[in-house]
Amino acid sequence: MLKKIHPIAGVIGFLTILTFWSSTVLSELFSTPEGIAAVKAMILKGMFVLIPAMIIVGASGMKLGARRKDAPARAKKKRMPAIAINGLVILLPAAIFLESRASAGQFDTSFFMVQFIELIAGATNLILMGLSIRDGRKMTEHRRRSV
Fold first, then answer.
1. 53, exposed or middle or buried, with CB in 10 Å at 0-12, 13-18, 19+?
2. pLDDT band at residue 1 under the 50/70/90 scheme
3. DSSP 30-83
4. Which residues contact 53 (CB under 8 A, 6 or more apart)?
């Protein structure tokens, strides 16, 4: 069962962050302050999807990879703490801060500085998660071929 849940949770997490990131960029480039505030509010609400997905992918990955010593498994194990720390220390607080500022109409220097940091941290997590998805596919390649 974990072998099915893990990749599903990983893809949900990846696509959720991709949606947050692209919505942010598009709203900043083409929307009104009200539209930006709406995007920030939806991102904060979307944490109720993202956080459980990331907990599930992390816990299931640790369980599935506990005994694995191959290179893709080691790489995934190294990336996961960086993804989690980035999410908990930068992305979640930034989402809360940015939603608060946007809903108050405070689009000042601190808003845009935190927005810039959030976009970099989000892109970093997308890259790290994409590499982990790639390595996960490598790890299951032999199983797919033999079926």
1. buried
2. confident
3. H--HHHHHHHHHHHHHHHHHHHHHHHHHHHHHHHHTTT--SHHHHHHHHHHHHH
4. 9, 10, 12, 13, 16
pLDDT in tens, 17-29: 999 999 999 999 9
Any domain includes 110:
yes
pLDDT, averaged across the chain:
94
Q: Cβ–Cβ contacts within 10 Å for residue 3, how many? A: 10
Q: What pLDDT, in 10s, does the model give residues 67-110?
A: 988 888 899 999 999 999 999 999 999 999 999 999 999 999 99
Quote the domain boundaries for residue 93.
Answer: 2-139
> The domain spanning residue 49 has which CATH number?
1.20.120
